[in-house]
Amino acid sequence: MLVGLVGVPNCGKSTMLKALTLADVQIANYPFTTIQPNQSVGHVIKDCACKKLGVRCNPQNSKCVGGKRWIPVKLLDVAGLVPGAHTGKGLGNQFLDDLRQADGLIHVLDVSGLTDSEGKPRTDDDRFDPEENIKVLEQEIDEWLHGIVRKNMEKVETLARMKKVPLARLLAEKLSGLGITEEDIKSAMRQSELGSREFATILRRESKPMIIAANKIDLPGAEENFGRVRKGHRNVIPASAESELALREAAEHGLIEYEPGDPDFRENAGKLTDKQIEALGFIRDNVLRKHGSTGIQQALNSLVFDMLQYIVVYPVASMSKYADKKGNVLPDAHLVKRGTTLKELAGRVHSDMADKFIGGLDVDKKKVGADHVLRDGEVVEILFSR
Ligand SMILES: Nc1nc2c(ncn2[C@@H]2O[C@H](COP(=O)(O)OP(=O)(O)OP(=O)(O)O)[C@@H](O)[C@H]2O)c(=O)[nH]1
Ligand SMILES: [Mg+2]
After folding, report:
1. Residue 154 domain boundaries
2. Residue 262 maps to which CATH number?
3. Within 13 Å of residue 276, how many CA atoms lie on the same side as its CB?
């Protein structure tokens, strides 16, 4: 699973990456701080199966923190996209090629209106309309995708004629690295002219679902903008990357008790300076109490679980102890698309397993077959011949 963080310069992409991963990345209040992409590992977080089963787990590919399973997700923070990037403005849009493999995107939107589409500062009485940046970003991604489609079209058209193979299939093969399927292409062809700009827009919506993190919600005036953005768009979450980063770092240093996504934190007595108490109090009053959380973990969770429709499953070697061969209880949590079958999971766990696949056992030790559709949170034993 790869999630890309995108947005205009200075909107808070690197701050968000750092808040999600505590990676050491450069953050600064000017545009184009990031030039080379930063990759790091964050987590989606969900109730762990250990809770329901009443067992103590021993995770191997993930971790369990207070009954919540943290499942790793790769995150990529790229340079800012400016209007006209596809014509070479700013840093251009070539760096988006690093996002070809992304399953989904988080649009980090500076909702304060205090920076424009080029990352230039605005004053209080000359605020920028953040909605403009949604258009800018979508347009630039569409241009990028349009360029990729156009580059492949000529070759694909010739091949389709020569081999008498459906064009949609050949194009899908070429674009499979973008997560685009033959079905996506057929559907886009029904709605628009093949290879047109609109065609690229439809493919973008299919292949790169995007959630909007309305960032810098802590700044004065941001809420008003947020209200407007939310009315016009779906999948918008109020967020403050800076607040999340402050809370995660304070927790890391033992100053407070806080887990990502929590609605509040607890101060550890005697550890905080007056200045820290004041800064954290600001976050509590202006972000957590108003919006229920900093929105950062929610944005990632919501993208993966709600928009991309992933679920979490726990394959085990033996259902009697819910453990692997070494006795680790609920060792691995896998992210799979809703609708994934047991046999498909077997192939994901080990390619060998799919070949030798016999069937499976559910949590009640009842037999289930290859076509068994996995449920969210399901623990399953995969049976195969040796
Ligand atoms: N008030 C406030 N400031 C924030 C927030 N998130 C980021 N910032 C500030 O916004 C500025 C830009 O942050 P970066 O994370 O470097 O932004 P970026 O999008 O990576 O910028 P480029 O790499 O230049 O494109 C920094 O001064 C951050 O401290 C937030 O939630 N609230
Ligand atoms: Mg950056």
Report:
1. 130-206
2. 3.40.50.300
3. 16
